[in-house]
Design goal:
The protein has about 650 residues and is an alpha/beta fold. The protein has helices spanning about 1-15, 50-55, 80-90, 130-135, 180, 200-205, 220-230, 260-270, 300-310, 410-420, 430-440, 470-475, 480-485, 630-640, and strands at about 30-35, 60-70, 70-80, 95-100, 145-150, 170-175, 245-250, 255-260, 285-290, 290, 315-320, 335-340, 355-360, 380-385, 395, 505-510, 520-530, 545-550, 555-565, 570-575, 580-585, 650. The chain starts with a helix and ends in a 10-residue tail after the last strand.
Length: about 650
Amino acid sequence: MICLRYLILAVWLAASASAPAQDAAGAGPQRFIVKLRIGTGAADQAGGPFPGLVLRAHAQLLEARPIFGGIQLLRVRGAGSTAQTLARLRADPEVEYAEVDQRRYAQSTPDDPLYAGQWYLQGDEPAAVDAADAWNVTTGSNGVVIAALDTGVRFDHPDLRNDSANRLLPGYDMISSVQTGNTGLGRNPDASDPGDWVSVADTKTALFADCAVANSSWHGTRVAGILGAISNNGSGIAGMSWSGRTLPVRVLGKCGGYDSDILAGMAWAAGFTVSGAPDNPYPARIINMSLGATGSCPESYQELIDQLTAAGVLVVVAAGNEGGPVDAPANCVGVAAVAGLRQVGTKVGYSSLGPQISLSAPAGNCVNTGAGAPCLFSIETTTNSGTTVPATNTYTDQYSFNIGTSFSAPIVSGIAGLMLAVNGNLTAGQLIARLQLGSVTPFPNPSGLEACHVPLNQSDLQTNECACTPEVCGAGMANAQGAVLQAQRPIAAVSLPASIGTGANVPLDGSGSAAACGAKIVSYQWTMVRPAGSSGLIKDADSAHASVVAPSGSAVYQLQLTVTDDSGRVDSAPIIITSSMTNTTAPARAGDAACLTAVSYSVPPSSTATGDSGSGEGSSGGGGGGGALDGALLAALLGAAAGRARYSRRSAASSHSRCARR
């Protein structure tokens, strides 16, 4: 009975945010599942205790019906909202627990026929991210924009854009080199991917002399499908997010792309002004970068990433496919660096690794070794069949397989998009922290498998499977449901005076805290953590506005604010107070955009198969950084990038030509 009770409570908590936060009084019967405490006398009352219980809850009893084992269904007409009636029932001393009798539906498994092959979205394999359970909470928001800095996209792929649905914004081609861009135009407003093949003839030119002969990768189209293919439409695959927009920013062409173009693309994607390019009307909240190269984080990247983070933009970057230290820019501070996992949760041989990794996600691997045998754990997504120029739009599969940390990154970016759908106030740092908290499944430790270690240098390669540890693979294995549930928690915010004096009355302001979309803060609690047992020193400790007298001498107070929303979800913030200063890691205000405004865009009739530089219906929402990146700073960043030859060209972090059976 105890286990069953916890199961019922866990199911309710997991889905509670999908229900309205409150309803109007008199809107209809309210339904609750209630169990009374044993031994109170009420549970064994002959006529039943429910009329009195319901009366104490300021409600009228319509029906009391046994379910099993002492658990009852109560239908009542409450004097207030469902949340208010529930709170009164839970506060009654005769009630062991009370829950909303919430309507449930069939699992949110999409009807896309190729979804069955998308093992990485499901829950059967240890490394899979359990997207289906996350989709029971949210399938995304039309207010979320994720930028894909990549090779561009095939706008005519029917699982990304068709006559009845569209997931793509116009984007921009930020490649300045006519030869690298392969369009004959240089920078231009069409983010279509023309193909990035490198021919034998290309390698005989100075620009591509160090490049390998290769077919077109359609890399950006593959990434876009993982981020957000048109889903639940009876066709093709499912994307991680079923709503929202993908903003293609073309920064990679033949033989990769240059830092100068990538930096400009990052700035433009976030809504910063970039000289020579029109302003981006659809600023992104998330930037996916499935690209990189070996070496340390360039200062130009770090400076721009710092600005993006301050503007609330999350940058997600693939770790790299060398099996050595984490590539740049995944090793920059403040990004979510993603390593690659085999289906069993161990590090796939080609994935780079190290202490800069935030978390890990499926990257694809082929466990079979026979010649011509299918790749059993490919990351299935959208692509094109052309070896040079575009041909037929299609999908990757076990024979035309798709692997690499390039595809771990958009899995995590897509999860972050789901998180913003339920709580648009989350900052870049908060998204990373809650992604990590949501990675609830620890890495497996198979018997006899060597543990991964921190690479000593660029030559220390671990190109075989190894057992992940948090030291080199991040907090854990990405889990979509866990991350979304973490995102639904409120955000505790604390405002403190800039300076204080010994014995001064220190005001504590938690009113800037905010709940997730559709929820509200219902309680505040200030406690004294150190010195223990001193919470009595705090005045008005159960309100948004409290105060405490500053300590004297060398004494230090360590306080904590805990905020609780109307579904019982909590967040806490630490506060340090000395005789002369106050400090907290919490924001002063959590924000007022928990529910994002939808981005409005319609595809012009002539632009179904290509990018479009027009604004359609115009735009709203999106919530990216916006504003202008200081012109002098951008010039300095681009100049610094151009002058760093060792970082001058970066490649897509896929691994199609690598041995996939490690």
